[in-house]
Amino acid sequence: MINLKRFLSTLSLLVFLGIWQGVAVYLNSNTLPTPEAVAKVFWLGCVSGQLPFHLGVTLLRLVVSFSVAMLLGCAIGIVLGRNKKLDAFFDNWLVIFLNIPALVTIILCYVWFGLVESAAILAVVINKLPNVIVTIREGTRALDQDLLDMARCYHFGKRKTLIHVIWPQLHPFVMGATRSGLALIWKIILVVELLGRSNGMGYQLHLFFQLFDVASILAYTVAFVAVIQLIELLILKPLDKKALRWRR
Amino acid sequence: MTDIQININNKTYPTATQPSIANLKLSLNSNEFICLVGPSGCGKTTLLNIIAGLDNDYDGEILVGQQHTHPKIGYIFQNPRLLPWRTVRENIELVLGEHQSPDVIDALLEVMQLTQAQQVYPERLSLGMSRRVSIIRAFAIDPEVLLMDEPFVSLDAPTARQVRELLVKLWQQRPHTVLFVTHDLREAIALADRLIFLSASPMQAVSEIIVPIARSDRGNELAIESFRQQLLQNHPEIKQLL
Predict the structure, then answer these.
(1) Percent of chain B surpassing pLDDT 70
(2) Across-strand partners of B22?
(3) Rounded to an integer, what distance in angstroms lies between the CA atom of residue A42 and that of residue A13?
(4) pLDDT (tens digit, 9 = 90+) per residue, B55-87?
(5) CATH number among 3.40.50.2300, 2.40.50.180, 3.30.70.1230, 3.40.50.300, domain B2-71+183-241
(6) How far apart are CA A101 and CA B48, in angstroms?
(7) Is residue A41 assigned to a domain?
């Protein structure tokens, strides 16, 4: 069964590449290079060190802004989920921040704080934070009251209750926020870099756009998608497996 | 010697028009096994939650000796309430205080015949085994009062009997004050030193009866049944509470 799954997943990738190759050859246009041409640009970018450098810069921004957004979002989400009065007070704020377009936040951060690194990170965090808060708040609202009562009755205290009773129940919500967060944040980071940074993937893509260099655009995209897939495979999936080992 | 005194003058839920519990006074003697018998929905779980400190919205007092304080509680809930993401042993270890030795866990696991299952996650246990783990968890903290909320409900008869016998064995080895809630009179007679019959809306203690059957005869179903018949004959007021 596992072998069949692997075979199908490899086959689907090959079919995708085949269709791409076929359409590119048929159109024979600079705007859609063949996979081979993209691979060549990818390799040259790697050899020159340009691609790893800009990819690294973007990844660093992703790690910092993602960590800040997740830590703050989880803390605020748990507090709002457990405290009805605070939740009622801040609910409108959440709705407002959820609905501000990412572009507006980015522009305002650059206008107010200048074209600096901290403004870029802040813009990404502000965009992601409300999503994390809402997801974790829903998770906290769904906590099993029977288990919380048990913890209270046996005097677990706040720390023990958080680690052993609350956090394992929030795990699926945290993983949901993590996965949707990674996908959302890297897209926002590209816009942030495009508008106000002089390095990173977004900056490079902007350059390639001006040069109409589609092969480079695709090479950078493939590199980034591959990195996000590696994060899923090497970090998120093992985390899931460890956290859910108790399930039948 | 009266160890713990529970006086609940009034407990009314915010949306209710009349109190759930009114003028209820219970005296718990040290190491006594007390069964609270009353109809379903009469507020027995509410009473246990008040004693456990989970419900503080009531008018009354709980005295341990002369002190106004909540006693140290081991609570065996109707549903075992084990943490599914922790093993049997971890579930028990979590309730122990920092200064308590985990050696007590090995002894308790052995009495309850769960030594082999200590590294298993609760989802892989049968309901009877889960109940036994929750009994161990309650005994492990060496509580001042053990609260048991119909812990054998929804078990099949042989399993319920087995768990009941193990509970009594454990209690005889490690005597504690027990408040056991049930609506099954036979079960109550088989377990209790003293029976307290409770009425519904509002809950009040209707009568208290000492069970004179020797501990060695509690497994004798004929003796239990004969006492039950005698009880119902001599106290007709309790018939409507069953």
Answers:
(1) 99
(2) B10
(3) 18
(4) 988 999 888 877 777 788 999 999 999 999 999
(5) 3.40.50.300
(6) 52
(7) no
Closest CA to A66 of A131, A1, A160: A131
pLDDT digits (tens, 9 = 90+) for A47-57: 999 999 999 99
pLDDT of residue A43: 94
CA distance A245 to A175: 15
**Residues B8-17: what's their mean pLDDT?**
86
Average pLDDT, chain A: 92
* Residues of A in Cβ contact (< 8 Å) with B54: 149, 152-153
3-state secondary structure chain A: CHHHHHHHHHHHHHHHHHHHHHHHHHHCCCCCCCHHHHHHHHHHHHHHCHHHHHHHHHHHHHHHHHHHHHHHHHHHHHHHHHCHHHHHHHHHHHHHHHHCCHHHHHHHHHHHHCCCHHHHHHHHHHHHHHHHHHHHHHHHHCCCHHHHHHHHHCCCHHHHHHHHHHHHHHHHHHHHHHHHHHHHHHHHHHHHHHHHCCCCHHHHHHHHHHHCCHHHHHHHHHHHHHHHHHHHHHHHHHHHHHHCCCCC
Taking the C-alpha atoms of residue A153 and residue A168, their distance in angstroms, rounded to an integer, is: 19
Beta-carbon separation of B94 and A146 below 8 A: no
CA atoms within 13 A on the CB side of A44: 9
Tell me if B22 sits within 8 A of B181, measured CB to CB.
Answer: no
| Residue A136 covered by a domain | yes
Is there a contact between A154 and B85 if contact means CB atoms under 8 Å apart? no
For the beta carbon of residue A100, count every other beta carbon within 10 angstroms.
13
Chain B residues with CB within 8 Å of chain A CB:
49, 52-54, 73, 75, 77, 79, 81, 83-86, 94-95, 121-124, 137, 141
